[in-house]
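=== RUN LOG ===
request id: a7f3
mode: sequence -> structure
chains: 1
length: 308
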Amino acid sequence: MRHMLALKYVDAVARAGSIRAAAEVLAITPSALNRRILAIEEELDIEIFERHALGVRLNSAGELFIHHIRAQMADLERVRSQIADLSGVRIGHVRIATTKEIGGRLLPRLIQSYRADFPGVTFSLHAYDRGQVEQQLQNLEADIVVMFQPLRLADMQVISHQQQHLSVALAADHPLAAHAELRLVDFLEHHPLLPPRGEGIREIVEAACVKKGLNCKPAIESDDMALLRHLARQGAGLALDLPLTISASPTEADLVYRPFKANEIEPGFLFVGQLYKRTLPVAARKFADRLREMFELETNALSGVAAN
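=== RESULT ===
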């Protein structure tokens, strides 16, 4: 695997944008790392980094080479997990990219449950703006994405998806908490707390406002959903959330949820996906299966409520 070590060096420099910063991560000296990079460029007979005053960045040849490197690293991880699975011991590393609207609430309990069964499996979970999530799949930076309202589905193989009707989060002592359902205008007139433009929840709210001729002007805007819920709990306004993230999270004191009335606002869709035609490592594939099972259970539960 010594050749993979050299490839890891290139990947680390590409991520850091600096040989010095990458050397700190790799625990080697900058001069030693620079020699390794120069040796790789000499072997390829082409430069893969542009050097500039603030560090380095990949050139066109480097972009091609880094995609090859990440494909090789992902494939090696897949083979390692398959070999381990043959022996009955599941190991591996699962990389998940998610939108900021859902990552911090939907996934922690599921990850904890999975690791209780398979402690040899580790996870990295990173939240991004909606436009960046699918890019993580294309760059082989993530095995699985969990996102609300994808922008594109061309390169994503859908593992599971579920319709989500937005719920309003508000303080338990808020006057609107006495209502079983709310109108969109109620939400807009009581200091709406919203994520930035471009995120899925904001997109749905703005589309409903255009349809009804209403003005969508948030009292407070933030990409930190936990902060928006905290502000709602303090009575600063009304926030929004998704049913699946609500049910997957511990009950929050002094915070209640109310649905919108029928036809007030369109639902969105929560997706779990992977890169199209990619064979996932065993650990990632099995975790994706658990996510699909969770979606199916939630769908069945909601269907049962509707039937009653």
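=== NOTES ===
The two ends are 59 Å apart (CA to CA).
The first strand starts at residue 49 and ends at 52.
=== END ===
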